[in-house]
Specification:
The structure is a single chain. By secondary structure, the chain is of the alpha/beta class. The protein is built from nine helices and eleven strands. It has helices spanning 14-22, 42-53, 74-82, 98-103, 128-142, 151-160, 185-191, 235-240, 253-274; strands at 2-6, 28-31, 59-63, 68-70, 89-94, 118-127, 167-169, 176-178, 207-210, 213-216, 225-227. Helix 2 (42-53) packs across helix 5 (128-142).
Protein backbone atom coordinates (compact mmCIF):
# COMPACT_ATOMS: atom_id res chain seq x y z
CA UNK A 1 0.00 0.00 0.00
CA UNK A 2 1.17 3.52 -0.82
CA UNK A 3 0.13 6.47 1.34
CA UNK A 4 0.00 9.83 -0.43
CA UNK A 5 -0.76 13.42 0.41
CA UNK A 6 -0.56 16.84 -1.21
CA UNK A 7 1.46 19.58 0.50
CA UNK A 8 3.07 22.64 -1.04
CA UNK A 9 5.07 23.19 2.15
CA UNK A 10 5.47 21.86 5.69
CA UNK A 11 2.93 23.43 8.00
CA UNK A 12 0.03 22.46 10.26
CA UNK A 13 0.30 18.86 11.47
CA UNK A 14 2.37 17.75 8.48
CA UNK A 15 5.33 16.70 10.66
CA UNK A 16 2.98 14.82 13.00
CA UNK A 17 1.57 12.93 10.03
CA UNK A 18 4.98 11.94 8.67
CA UNK A 19 6.24 10.94 12.12
CA UNK A 20 3.12 8.86 12.87
CA UNK A 21 3.85 6.86 9.69
CA UNK A 22 7.59 6.50 10.28
CA UNK A 23 6.85 4.70 13.53
CA UNK A 24 5.45 1.85 11.46
CA UNK A 25 8.13 2.05 8.76
CA UNK A 26 5.83 3.71 6.25
CA UNK A 27 7.02 6.55 4.06
CA UNK A 28 4.63 9.29 3.00
CA UNK A 29 4.64 10.16 -0.69
CA UNK A 30 4.24 13.94 -0.82
CA UNK A 31 2.84 15.50 -3.99
CA UNK A 32 3.03 19.20 -4.76
CA UNK A 33 6.11 20.20 -2.79
CA UNK A 34 7.16 23.68 -3.86
CA UNK A 35 4.06 24.21 -6.03
CA UNK A 36 2.42 27.60 -6.12
CA UNK A 37 -0.95 27.43 -4.42
CA UNK A 38 -3.97 28.17 -6.61
CA UNK A 39 -6.84 26.25 -5.06
CA UNK A 40 -8.23 23.21 -3.28
CA UNK A 41 -8.59 21.12 -6.42
CA UNK A 42 -4.81 20.91 -6.83
CA UNK A 43 -4.62 17.80 -4.66
CA UNK A 44 -6.91 15.80 -6.98
CA UNK A 45 -5.19 17.10 -10.11
CA UNK A 46 -1.79 16.19 -8.70
CA UNK A 47 -3.01 12.75 -7.64
CA UNK A 48 -4.48 12.11 -11.10
CA UNK A 49 -1.15 13.05 -12.72
CA UNK A 50 0.76 10.80 -10.32
CA UNK A 51 -1.50 7.81 -11.00
CA UNK A 52 -1.24 8.33 -14.76
CA UNK A 53 2.53 7.89 -14.43
CA UNK A 54 2.39 5.05 -11.87
CA UNK A 55 0.13 2.38 -13.31
CA UNK A 56 0.72 -0.52 -10.93
CA UNK A 57 -2.73 -1.45 -9.61
CA UNK A 58 -1.86 -1.39 -5.92
CA UNK A 59 -3.75 -0.07 -2.90
CA UNK A 60 -3.61 3.72 -2.63
CA UNK A 61 -4.50 5.65 0.52
CA UNK A 62 -4.75 9.43 0.19
CA UNK A 63 -4.99 11.73 3.23
CA UNK A 64 -4.94 15.48 3.78
CA UNK A 65 -1.52 16.79 4.74
CA UNK A 66 -2.10 19.32 7.50
CA UNK A 67 -4.76 17.86 9.80
CA UNK A 68 -4.36 14.07 9.74
CA UNK A 69 -2.43 11.65 11.97
CA UNK A 70 -2.26 7.85 12.03
CA UNK A 71 -3.24 6.34 15.37
CA UNK A 72 -2.30 2.78 14.51
CA UNK A 73 -0.34 0.66 12.05
CA UNK A 74 -1.36 1.49 8.44
CA UNK A 75 -1.07 -2.24 7.73
CA UNK A 76 -4.36 -2.65 9.59
CA UNK A 77 -5.96 -0.13 7.23
CA UNK A 78 -4.77 -2.12 4.24
CA UNK A 79 -5.98 -5.38 5.78
CA UNK A 80 -9.40 -3.84 6.41
CA UNK A 81 -9.64 -2.58 2.84
CA UNK A 82 -8.67 -5.93 1.30
CA UNK A 83 -11.73 -7.45 2.98
CA UNK A 84 -14.01 -4.89 1.30
CA UNK A 85 -15.28 -4.58 -2.26
CA UNK A 86 -12.19 -4.12 -4.43
CA UNK A 87 -14.19 -2.19 -7.04
CA UNK A 88 -14.96 0.68 -4.67
CA UNK A 89 -13.18 3.76 -3.34
CA UNK A 90 -13.86 4.18 0.39
CA UNK A 91 -14.12 7.79 1.60
CA UNK A 92 -14.21 8.97 5.18
CA UNK A 93 -17.55 10.24 6.44
CA UNK A 94 -18.83 12.73 8.97
CA UNK A 95 -22.22 13.70 10.39
CA UNK A 96 -24.43 15.82 8.21
CA UNK A 97 -25.46 19.27 9.42
CA UNK A 98 -27.29 22.35 8.17
CA UNK A 99 -24.18 24.07 6.83
CA UNK A 100 -22.89 21.15 4.79
CA UNK A 101 -26.36 20.56 3.34
CA UNK A 102 -26.43 24.12 1.99
CA UNK A 103 -22.92 24.08 0.55
CA UNK A 104 -22.50 20.61 -0.84
CA UNK A 105 -25.32 18.28 -1.83
CA UNK A 106 -28.13 16.22 -0.41
CA UNK A 107 -27.18 13.09 1.48
CA UNK A 108 -27.07 10.07 -0.80
CA UNK A 109 -30.24 8.04 -0.28
CA UNK A 110 -28.34 4.92 0.79
CA UNK A 111 -26.60 6.83 3.60
CA UNK A 112 -29.51 8.71 5.19
CA UNK A 113 -29.88 6.36 8.14
CA UNK A 114 -26.16 5.82 8.69
CA UNK A 115 -24.24 7.16 11.70
CA UNK A 116 -21.77 9.16 9.64
CA UNK A 117 -23.47 9.99 6.35
CA UNK A 118 -21.69 12.97 4.78
CA UNK A 119 -18.77 12.28 2.44
CA UNK A 120 -15.48 13.87 3.46
CA UNK A 121 -12.77 13.97 0.80
CA UNK A 122 -9.91 14.33 3.31
CA UNK A 123 -9.21 10.59 3.48
CA UNK A 124 -9.91 7.77 1.04
CA UNK A 125 -8.56 4.38 -0.02
CA UNK A 126 -8.90 2.17 -3.06
CA UNK A 127 -7.06 0.35 -5.79
CA UNK A 128 -5.10 2.58 -8.16
CA UNK A 129 -7.23 1.77 -11.23
CA UNK A 130 -10.53 2.50 -9.51
CA UNK A 131 -9.30 5.80 -8.06
CA UNK A 132 -7.80 6.85 -11.38
CA UNK A 133 -11.06 6.13 -13.23
CA UNK A 134 -12.94 8.18 -10.64
CA UNK A 135 -10.58 11.13 -11.08
CA UNK A 136 -10.87 10.94 -14.88
CA UNK A 137 -14.66 10.99 -14.62
CA UNK A 138 -14.55 13.93 -12.19
CA UNK A 139 -12.27 15.80 -14.61
CA UNK A 140 -14.76 15.29 -17.45
CA UNK A 141 -17.68 16.37 -15.29
CA UNK A 142 -16.17 19.40 -13.54
CA UNK A 143 -13.09 20.40 -15.59
CA UNK A 144 -9.98 20.16 -13.43
CA UNK A 145 -8.46 23.22 -15.12
CA UNK A 146 -10.44 25.35 -12.66
CA UNK A 147 -8.28 24.75 -9.61
CA UNK A 148 -10.32 27.00 -7.34
CA UNK A 149 -13.18 24.51 -7.20
CA UNK A 150 -13.81 22.84 -3.84
CA UNK A 151 -12.82 19.16 -4.05
CA UNK A 152 -15.20 18.33 -1.20
CA UNK A 153 -18.09 19.89 -3.07
CA UNK A 154 -17.56 18.26 -6.45
CA UNK A 155 -16.89 14.76 -5.06
CA UNK A 156 -19.98 15.05 -2.82
CA UNK A 157 -22.17 16.12 -5.71
CA UNK A 158 -20.80 13.39 -7.92
CA UNK A 159 -21.40 10.74 -5.29
CA UNK A 160 -24.95 11.81 -4.51
CA UNK A 161 -25.78 11.90 -8.22
CA UNK A 162 -24.87 8.19 -8.45
CA UNK A 163 -22.91 8.82 -11.65
CA UNK A 164 -20.01 6.88 -10.23
CA UNK A 165 -21.39 3.89 -8.34
CA UNK A 166 -17.99 2.75 -7.07
CA UNK A 167 -17.79 5.39 -4.34
CA UNK A 168 -18.80 4.30 -0.86
CA UNK A 169 -18.36 5.70 2.65
CA UNK A 170 -16.82 4.46 5.86
CA UNK A 171 -20.10 5.23 7.60
CA UNK A 172 -19.13 3.58 10.90
CA UNK A 173 -15.68 5.17 11.11
CA UNK A 174 -14.08 1.75 11.09
CA UNK A 175 -10.80 3.17 9.76
CA UNK A 176 -11.27 6.94 9.23
CA UNK A 177 -12.61 9.30 11.90
CA UNK A 178 -13.42 12.96 11.28
CA UNK A 179 -13.14 14.55 14.70
CA UNK A 180 -16.46 15.70 16.14
CA UNK A 181 -16.34 18.92 18.09
CA UNK A 182 -17.94 19.17 21.50
CA UNK A 183 -21.20 21.09 21.45
CA UNK A 184 -20.76 22.86 24.78
CA UNK A 185 -21.20 26.64 25.30
CA UNK A 186 -17.44 27.28 25.52
CA UNK A 187 -16.77 25.72 22.14
CA UNK A 188 -19.72 27.61 20.67
CA UNK A 189 -18.14 30.90 21.76
CA UNK A 190 -14.86 29.98 20.06
CA UNK A 191 -16.71 28.79 16.97
CA UNK A 192 -18.13 32.27 16.36
CA UNK A 193 -15.10 34.32 17.39
CA UNK A 194 -11.66 35.19 16.11
CA UNK A 195 -9.96 33.37 18.97
CA UNK A 196 -7.42 30.62 18.43
CA UNK A 197 -9.09 27.21 18.38
CA UNK A 198 -8.95 25.51 21.77
CA UNK A 199 -7.49 22.04 22.11
CA UNK A 200 -9.92 19.27 21.44
CA UNK A 201 -10.03 17.01 24.51
CA UNK A 202 -8.97 13.38 24.69
CA UNK A 203 -12.42 12.47 25.98
CA UNK A 204 -15.80 13.82 24.92
CA UNK A 205 -19.43 12.84 24.47
CA UNK A 206 -18.43 11.47 21.06
CA UNK A 207 -15.21 9.57 21.73
CA UNK A 208 -12.53 8.71 24.25
CA UNK A 209 -8.79 8.36 23.76
CA UNK A 210 -6.98 5.97 26.07
CA UNK A 211 -3.77 3.94 25.79
CA UNK A 212 -3.13 5.54 22.39
CA UNK A 213 -6.42 4.16 21.02
CA UNK A 214 -9.42 6.23 19.93
CA UNK A 215 -12.84 4.74 20.66
CA UNK A 216 -15.83 6.20 18.80
CA UNK A 217 -18.81 5.78 21.11
CA UNK A 218 -21.66 5.87 18.60
CA UNK A 219 -20.22 3.28 16.21
CA UNK A 220 -18.13 1.46 18.86
CA UNK A 221 -15.12 1.38 16.57
CA UNK A 222 -11.38 2.02 16.89
CA UNK A 223 -10.39 4.01 13.78
CA UNK A 224 -6.84 4.04 12.47
CA UNK A 225 -6.74 7.54 10.96
CA UNK A 226 -7.76 10.74 12.77
CA UNK A 227 -8.76 13.73 10.66
CA UNK A 228 -9.10 17.08 12.42
CA UNK A 229 -11.20 18.59 9.66
CA UNK A 230 -12.12 22.24 9.97
CA UNK A 231 -8.61 23.06 11.20
CA UNK A 232 -9.28 21.45 14.58
CA UNK A 233 -6.62 21.77 17.26
CA UNK A 234 -5.17 18.26 17.65
CA UNK A 235 -2.44 19.19 20.10
CA UNK A 236 -3.92 17.06 22.89
CA UNK A 237 -3.61 14.01 20.64
CA UNK A 238 -0.14 14.80 19.33
CA UNK A 239 1.13 15.40 22.87
CA UNK A 240 -0.35 12.12 24.11
CA UNK A 241 1.25 10.30 21.17
CA UNK A 242 4.52 12.24 21.52
CA UNK A 243 4.23 13.60 18.00
CA UNK A 244 5.17 17.11 16.80
CA UNK A 245 2.52 19.73 17.53
CA UNK A 246 1.23 22.15 14.96
CA UNK A 247 3.95 24.49 13.73
CA UNK A 248 1.71 27.49 13.15
CA UNK A 249 -0.97 29.23 15.16
CA UNK A 250 -4.22 27.29 15.22
CA UNK A 251 -6.80 29.38 13.50
CA UNK A 252 -10.31 28.66 14.70
CA UNK A 253 -12.89 26.74 12.71
CA UNK A 254 -14.88 29.86 11.91
CA UNK A 255 -11.93 31.66 10.37
CA UNK A 256 -10.74 28.65 8.40
CA UNK A 257 -13.84 26.93 7.12
CA UNK A 258 -17.17 28.34 8.21
CA UNK A 259 -16.69 31.68 6.47
CA UNK A 260 -16.19 29.76 3.23
CA UNK A 261 -19.42 27.89 3.83
CA UNK A 262 -21.35 31.05 4.67
CA UNK A 263 -20.04 32.84 1.59
CA UNK A 264 -21.19 29.98 -0.61
CA UNK A 265 -24.59 29.89 1.07
CA UNK A 266 -24.94 33.65 0.53
CA UNK A 267 -23.95 33.23 -3.11
CA UNK A 268 -26.48 30.47 -3.69
CA UNK A 269 -29.31 32.41 -2.08
CA UNK A 270 -28.34 35.49 -4.13
CA UNK A 271 -28.50 33.47 -7.35
CA UNK A 272 -31.85 31.96 -6.39
CA UNK A 273 -33.34 35.36 -5.56
CA UNK A 274 -32.42 36.73 -8.98
CA UNK A 275 -33.98 33.85 -10.93
Amino acid sequence: MKILTYATHETGYFLALTESLKRYNYDLIVLGQGDKWYGLLQKLVSLKNYLSENQSNEVICFVDAYDVIFLDNPKKLEQWFLKQDSNKVYFSATRDNFTTRQVFSKIASQDRNKIFNRLNSGCFIGFRDVIYNLLCDLDKEYDFSNLQQNDQEIVSKYYSSKKFSNITLDCDSEVFYNLEWNTNPINALYFFSDKVAIKQPLKSIHYKFNNNKLFVKKSRTYPIVLHGNGNANLDSFTQALELPSKNEENRNYYGYSTTTYFNQIKYKFTIQSTV
